[in-house]
Amino acid sequence: MSSTGSSDLVIVANRLPVDRVELNDGTPGWRRSPGGLVTAIEPVMRANEGTWIGWPGGTEQDLKPFEDDGMDLVPMTMTDREIENHYEGFSNGTLWPLYHDLVAKPEFHREWWDAYVAVNRRFAEKAAEHASEDATVWVHDYQMQLVPQMLRELRPDLRIGFYLHIPFPPAELFQQLPWRRQILEGLLGADLVGFQLPGAAANFVRLVRQRVGHKTHRDLIYLPDGRTVRAGAFPISIDAAGFEELSRSEPVGKRAAEIREALGSPRKVFLGIDRLDYTKGIYARLRAFSELIADGHFDVEDAVFVQVAVPSREQVEQYRILRDEIDRLVGRINGDLGRIGRPAISYLHSSYPREEMAALYRMADIMVVTPYRDGMNLVAKEYVACRFEDDGALVLSEFAGAADELRQAWLINPYDINGMKAALLEAYQADDRELGRRMRAMRKTISQHDVAAWADSFMAELAAVRPTHGKAVRPARRS
Ligand code: GDG
Fold first, then answer.
1. Binding pocket residue ranges, ligand 1, CB within 6 Å
2. What's the rounded Cα separation, in Å, for the pair 369 and 272?
3. What atom in ligand 1 is closest to the CA of residue 380?
4. Could you tell me if 463 and 470 are in contact, meaning their C-beta atoms sit under 8 angstroms apart?
5. pTM of the shown model
6. Tens digits of per-residue pLDDT, 91-102?
């Protein structure tokens, strides 16, 4: 077999870790995008001179591979139609709601599926072109679930890992998908299929047994061709030390104080930071907060809610509807409960630099994370990492992956508004001892399981699944 590529480690993800932007002099250039995945994978990429294959956003054609800060980046082009059918359509209109417990109704369209297959094939072909003989390829997330099998057919020499960042649904829901078997077979092209939680891995193994008919034993799947696939849980994390350092820095401390002052120095500040997504439970949490004011538990002089909603998937209709709903709710709450210069909710529809995020985490007394379903939720972990004084409260949905590790948060059911109100009030009233006890325990968890440990454990497990096959990948751990 001829291998054409030269990279021992190839990352395949829907997005590249950079965005196409216009530089100050008006020429097109690249800017590093903020997401957690880049931070997670960058160290292992550097240690192995890796190549990252992904879409830079937009429809610009003829983009050439380039190097950015020590990483080889290969931009994939997408046409308007592919963006509509693969990205907005099958990925975000079918899979996203289906995998998040049907929080919204998934749509099934055959032309969306056709585009999904075509785009996955193009990504697989590109990975096959760049991977060296016996290289490791790590494929990411729900937009790319067919890539492992397509790549395996092109390059049986490769060691292939797949990681799903979002939940993997129970069989009862997954079964609705007209292309359920193709997706399962697509994933089985990998040697290791990684999920956030053990329950998701178990859902996958059960579905493979029922729908594809392969033999399974615990977390192992035995394929007729003799290959073994492992399904496992690898809960993702954050660069905890990096966030803490940023939070401790003087400019961030100053900025945190400035924000509180600008808010009118209330006794307590509640904070929500989310992509504006219907899975995140923003509407219900703002209602719960406003009812606590309306019921007289506290006043707008005592407490304010800062909600940052980062613009997301604005071309998808359900996201536009959600934005209008939240706009209306915030307007109504502030109209009913606010006073001059004292809105109950300070609502920001925008994205911010990392430093501003750290300042927000540092100034907030109560972080409110209430998704109906979330693979992990890194915002919850980032808040904990930034609380170096062991203070601050975290109110966290049981249905976020992070709830498995952050047991000392005030855990809530986001469908239960009264339960959520009770937890918000408890967190508001908690004394320093109680806050310290909970936060110390959560900080210990986060510092022991950071993102470098996550990437290393996935890589180590991937190497262990096919020990006689593939080159060694150097670990990411920084000394
Ligand atoms: C998916 C899964 C899983 C947000 N706004 C800004 C900004 N962010 C950063 C946060 C955080 C990340 O984006 C968001 O991550 P989440 O985990 O909270 O949520 P999703 O975007 O839905 O991520 C999720 C994750 O993948 C990883 O596997 O945990 O369950 O849904 O890191 O800080 N960063 C900056 N400015 C912003 O305005 N700089």
1. 34-36, 165-166, 236, 273, 275, 310, 351-354, 357, 374-379, 382
2. 6
3. 18
4. yes
5. 0.96
6. 999 999 999 998
